[in-house]
Amino acid sequence: MSQVALNVEGMSCNHCVQAVERAVKEAGAEAKVNLEAKTVLVDFDESKISIGEIKHAIEDQGYDIV
User: Fold this and answer.
1) Burial of residue 58 (number of CB atoms within 10 Å: 0-12, 13-18, 19+)
2) Which among 3, 14, 24, 46 has most CB atoms closer than 10 A?
C-alpha cells in the first residue's frame, strides 16, 4: 500500500469533499480530504491503480491538482 498527499484547488464545501472522496473510491483507492488545508490524502495499491489515474479522477470532478 502506498500513500500520497495531493494539494487540490477548488474545494470549498462538504459537497466538494464528498465528490473527491467518491471519485477516488470509484477509481479504486481511498481518500481523506482536509478541506481547510486543501489536501487529499490517498491510500492506494500501486499494482492496481497509478497516481496518474487518481489525479485524473479528481480532475474529472473539476478540481485542480497543484
Assistant:
1) buried
2) 24
